């Protein structure tokens, strides 16, 4: 494929690459030459020893990155959990301290000394209605 026939922005092999359906003859020996930052080369020696075929391997294998193993890696998730728990406890403290304290006249007991029903610090309109027995 010549560069004149390429579409704009298309990248590909040059003229010296041959695409063919391979009907391989038997191979006596083969070798691989690895090249860093380039495609690997594969050399095949025919069974009669007269022909050497060199193939450029254009595919690259995906190598996943190694997991991080720093000094603080074992503490990452426990510290994240601690931060979430701290944020939730601060939120609970802020919401509970902003509610009005009950006055001393309504201490939660009736004149007979028995405890009245109700939730401390919650306005009466939000208390559930429970039938008295």
UniProtKB/TrEMBL annotation:
<protein>
    <submittedName>
        <fullName>Uncharacterized protein</fullName>
    </submittedName>
</protein>
<feature type="compositionally biased region" description="Basic and acidic residues">
    <location>
        <begin position="124"/>
        <end position="133"/>
    </location>
</feature>
<feature type="compositionally biased region" description="Gly residues">
    <location>
        <begin position="110"/>
        <end position="120"/>
    </location>
</feature>
<feature type="region of interest" description="Disordered">
    <location>
        <begin position="95"/>
        <end position="133"/>
    </location>
</feature>
<feature type="compositionally biased region" description="Low complexity">
    <location>
        <begin position="95"/>
        <end position="109"/>
    </location>
</feature>
